Amino acid sequence: MGKKVITIAFANNKGGSGKTTTCANIGYSLALMGRKVLLIDGDMQMNLTLSFFEEEKVLEFASGERNIYYGVKKQDDLTGYIKKTFCEELDLIPSTILMSGIEYELFTRWQRELILRKCLQEIKSSGEYDYILIDAPPTLGSWVMNILCASDYVVMPVEASPWGLFGVANMFEFLEDVRQINGELALLGIAITKVDARKNYYKQTLEAFRKEENLRVFEQVIRVDSEIEWSQDRSRPVAAHKKSARSAAEYMELAKEIEAYAGRNRKH
Q: What CATH architecture applies to the domain 6-263?
């Protein structure tokens, strides 16, 4: 049997959780570990695409018809929508602002929750990738349902702040709804982001989650680091911008944790 492609959605219905940044940097860290990774930008803000391409190129992708919006709208095999990034082990399917209308496009479709899963069938069966990482928008609608129905796991980035826990219960309820359709979906873990260790919010956030039974909180947290903003300004993941950055090491450790749990199911 060939290797199983592991698909992981990065999802949280609260904006500002560090979701896209985590997705981009975990993808790049896995690529540095020698894994072949496909990133899918599922958000109209296009920030995942901007993490690997200059703005001019991102706008070119967004105005064309080879982005996630048209792929899903046409219910196409997404193989032809893949763009090569500067990193040999990492490819990306870009987004577009048109994703603001994806809910409308999906609304009348037959088995609408499973469209993305079908669009990814060829890519998954090709054995080209070890991981597919999908950046979900901060909403709870048909599109996020699609993303989760196409995924094996969810990583939920949560900001270590008083607002960080807001809406988490809604996300957990939504995951239960998705499991009615995709019974295989599992919450891989909670990734605590934007940590300022001097503030008590961090400890409160951790304690709140650690009280929950059967809920994994990743050991590696991501601390606040100005190098993350600088790397975003350069359209690069932080390790590509500055290898010695503290956050680069933290994302690598988090990627190793994610691989340790998710990679158990990869059969070579």
A: 3-Layer(aba) Sandwich (3.40)
